[in-house]
């Protein structure tokens, strides 16, 4: 699910073949400036090395997306990479990445790194990864020592991982979306009213969502009404002042979204093979 420009979809395909060893990818963060304020760590980008010529390009990781995308609005940069803009698959050193053309988006540079697409949840189907936020790396695990992790109540929404939280003793389901990094917890205005600290300061942030400017409205979160693990750093609760957003959540059968921000000091296990999410102890 993508809500503003830096929340580009990011997905590796379920058909990626991995060796039995633990593969490690070192990712990069991007920062953004919102209303003159620097916002750090707004998106995760993974390096992908092409199999035929060993050239490296970048894709954004987005576990909230169901498909992988290739940005085809401008394919000039593909010539140097040796990529066929009409290809439905990309051969990399990690395996085959299945791609859907996204003609509404074009490749762009982050520093001297070229971003050409997105990789999302099909990368994780039947796979296990550990996102080490502190050391900026993703480890693809061949097996898991369960004693190392505290597991969170979790579920699935259209094959995408969700985290279950109790709000006023009612279980609510939140999509874990690596494409959402600016906010701790995003939900509906109705749920925000339950979660906010009474009389807390209202913060408004304009963001771009598919070319449209909408307002994100945040409040301090009242930890007394929500049951969650201390390792999850939930401080703010947010809703978008946009009518269609609540309908999107309802269509996805979720109550909201939790992004990277609450886990920035952790090592987070995403194990869709066994449908579980854990935080390293």
Explain this structure.
The protein is mainly beta and 281 residues long. It has two domains: 23-140, Cathepsin D, subunit A, domain 1 (Beta Barrel), CATH 2.40.70; 146-280, Acid Proteases (Cathepsin D, subunit A, domain 1), CATH 2.40.70. 8% of the residues lie in helices and 44% in strands. It contains three helices and 24 strands. Strand 9 and strand 10 (113-119) form a beta hairpin. The longest helix is centred in the C-terminal third of the chain and has 10 residues, at 243-252. The model is unreliable at 2-20 (pLDDT under 50).
Provide a brief overview of the structure.
This protein has 281 residues and is mainly β. It has 3 helices and 24 strands. It folds into 2 domains: 23-140, Beta Barrel (Cathepsin D, subunit A, domain 1), CATH 2.40.70; 146-280, Cathepsin D, subunit A, domain 1 (Beta Barrel).
What percent strand? 35-45%
Counted up, domains total: 2
Shape: globular
Counting DSSP H or I runs of 4 or more residues, the number of helices is 3
The number of E-state strands comes to 24
- Low-confidence parts, pLDDT < 50 over ≥5 residues? 2-20
The CATH superfamily of the largest domain bears the name: Acid Proteases
Rg: 18 Å
Indicate the mean pLDDT: 87
The top-level CATH class of the largest domain is: Mainly Beta
Helix content: under 10%
CATH architecture of the largest domain: Beta Barrel
Sketch the major β-sheet.
Answer: 9 strands, mixed
The fold-level CATH name of the largest domain is: Cathepsin D, subunit A, domain 1
Q: What class do helices, strands and sheet pairing give? A: mainly beta
Order of helices and strands: EEEEEHEEEEEEEEEEEEHEEEEHEEE
Distance between the termini: 29 Å
